[in-house]
Amino acid sequence: MKKERIDQLLLNQGLVPTLERARALLMAGRVLVGNQPVTKPGALVTGDAQVRLKGEELPFVGRGGLKLEAALETWEIDLKGQLCLDVGASTGGFSDCMLQAGAALVWAVDSGQNQLDQRLRRDRRVICLEKTNFRYAQLELTGSYVDFAAVDVSFISLKLILGPLYGLLVKGGHAVVLVKPQFEAGRGQIGKGGLVEDPLVRQEVVRQIVEFAQALGFLVRAMRESPIEGKKSGNLETLLWLEK
């Protein structure tokens, strides 16, 4: 029997509304073939394969939304009517979370392209800014100061992001920033697959980002561990709550 990609099969069987949602569920380990989890969207399976979703479907288009949701709930951050910015939007998990929390408008910024979920692309409350390197961002990017921002970036240090972020936030505005240790630690401190196992290294990474943010003028309101690990590296990540 002819084989097809597992993400396409999920879409064809009506288990997900979009390919982006299929890929998010796969990378979250929520797709089972038989009783075995499949995590690679390009994995090939036969058309008669017994495919099912594990647990409830993700409430957001990407698993990143679960991280931001935890921050908003823990710190009781109210986004109703807010102008928001999603830096490192990817499929749009953070953007989706912001909208569901009542955001009036979200600028979804990413250096890549064709990643944002189609449902969000069609949403009039979302402005998609693809192929945009945020490290060079100025107020012209949005044309307006934003009330709230969330940051989830890869392959770049937050130290290159926090300055432009500070410039776009309104005075008194808030931000939730995800600290990924593999993109902040020294090369010799990172293990196979990008895993940073030493808790002391992770703590030092967070300390350095906190001090850098404070030097820019941010108030560091709180921090907490992300409720889920990094999807590829398995790293323990930290959420910071900043205020301008």
UniProtKB/TrEMBL annotation:
Positions of the RNA-binding S4 domain: 4-66
Matches recorded under SMART domains: S4
GO molecular function: methyltransferase activity; RNA binding
Biological process per Gene Ontology, one example term: methylation
Keywords, alphabetical: RNA-binding
CDD domains in UniProt: S4 (cd00165)
Entry-linked InterPro entries: Hemolysin_A/TlyA, RNA_MeTrfase_FtsJ_dom, S4_RNA-bd, S4_RNA-bd_sf, SAM-dependent_MTases_sf, TlyA
Superkingdom in the source lineage: Bacteria
Family stated for the protein in its record: Belongs to the TlyA family.
NCBIfam families with a match to the protein in the record: tly
Name the UniProt record assigns to this protein: RNA-binding S4 domain-containing protein
Biological source species: Candidatus Lambdaproteobacteria bacterium RIFOXYD2_FULL_50_16
